[in-house]
Amino acid sequence: MFLVVEGEGERLGFAAVVEGLNMSVLHLNRDRFFPGEPGTRAIARRLFEAVERLPIISPHGHCDPAWFATDAQFADPATLMIARDHYVFRMLHSRGVPLTALGIGARDDGATAPAPRDAWRLFAQNYHLFRGTPTRLWHDHVYAEVFGLDVRLGPGTADLYFDVISEALASPALRPRALFERFGIEVLATTESPLDALEHHRAIAASGWGGRVITTYRPDPVVDPDREDFVANLQRFSEVTGQDALDWKGYLSAHRRRRLDFIAAGATATDHGHPSAATANLSPADAEALFARVRAGRPAAAEAELFRAQMLTEMARMSLDDGLVMQLHPGSLRNHDRRLFATHGRDMGADIPTATDYVHALRPLLERFGDAPGLTLIVFTLDESAYSRELAPLAGHYPALRLGPAWWFHDSPEGMRRFRERTTETAGFYNTVGFNDDTRAFPSIQARHDLARRIDCGFLARLVAEARLAEDEAAEVAHDLAYRLPKEAYRL
């Protein structure tokens, strides 16, 4: 087994550590995820070879901009690969592993956090739980390609992994900016709330480093009246913007001003994580009266939903003025586990997909702005039943609408295939926006884009094998999906 240190031209051997131990080999098959039929697989391989090394466009995700502002060494394997990744700790939680045992502390519990090595050993002991999941695919890719490991992770190799990864993280070649360049990332978008000071983005811009890291405007904390901190957030919003965000007109002015701040920090898009896809088109007077009711705190569920719906239409109106692309990520019942929310807070892996209507829900916004030149609304779904029935027909008609890729629970080989199978015949390829990784786990970005490109090339290869598409056309589509379409859709 070897640790590959990029740029040093040498391999640091660890053969002595593993000599004589019975360990399973970690090997990434060159044809992984391609169709099994040999002729179709050969076509997929040719298509993939032409796009494999294209620059990565990462237009939507949740990486921490502080990584690139400070370029500090990543802390340790457990913090890097477990603590920030809800795909990982939600699976472990489902099998009874306490989050505190992974170093993910409860609020004010006063407990001593486990040593990172102990958290890692617990993860390795349960690594078999990820068999058949995309998490396993991403992690194996990172271990093999980033850290040069060639035996599988398990209880017997936990300490070896921890030592190899820890040593690698101490190298300048594994600092955030070096990995950014090594992965071939052309642009990476983070996501911040209107209450974020954006100081890390300013630090990146002032550093002289050439990597392009931009922000995205995520207004949910000051748009969702169901949040327990909504009114306090409005007060903070007033302080940040110098506008009276407790007044309807001042509230809208605060959004416009803050959006300009985000544009100055590189933003080309907004993002909206609403419970549903509901939109509304109220009169100015009705919208102002609704805002007064939700601002007072504890609105009825229908009023909160209507306010969020109206704000999507207001954001579309603002996008026509400032050019920001809209993203809508609906259909998740957030913080389903109330006990876990009480002890650990938000974003602890307990968000559950719900059935989502798009045809009726989007109609008010689309009637108002669906044909407006200059508006792009990228819609995602956790309800796969809506792909062929609702989303593909909508995107196949309204010029403003684009389909985001398979997202979250469906960001997997089968989920990506289902997305192409259920949307292409009605919406085509060019009403979609390529791939975005949506990651919080920075080292997995390359793995996720590699997987998406392989799945798309496999899908295209099948069309070629069935004489439904010429191979030169398939090659052009593969390039567009991997590179051109995300740049075009997100105005990058």
Structural key phrases:
492 residues; alpha/beta; uronate isomerase, domain 2, chain A; TIM Barrel; three-stranded parallel sheet; 20 helices; disordered N terminus
Describe what this molecule looks like in 3D.
The chain is α/β, with parallel strands linked by helices and 492 residues long. The protein is built from 20 helices and eleven strands. The protein has a four-stranded parallel beta sheet with strand order 6-7-10-11, covered by helices on one side. Strands 3-4-5 form a three-stranded parallel beta sheet. It has a two-stranded antiparallel sheet with strand order 1-2. The longest helix has 22 residues, at 301-322. The radius of gyration is 23 Å and the shape is globular. 47% of the residues lie in helices and 7% in strands. It folds into two domains: 74-169, uronate isomerase, domain 2, chain A, CATH 1.10.2020.10; 178-489, Metal-dependent hydrolases (TIM Barrel), CATH 3.20.20.
CATH topology of the largest domain: TIM Barrel
CATH domain class name of the largest domain: Alpha Beta
Strand order in space, largest sheet: 6-7-10-11
Q: What kind of assembly state do the chains in view correspond to?
A: single chain
Number of E-type strands: 11
Fraction of residues in helix: 40-55%
Distance between the termini: 40 Å
Number of separate helices: 20
Instruction: State mean pLDDT (0 to 100 scale).
Output: 92
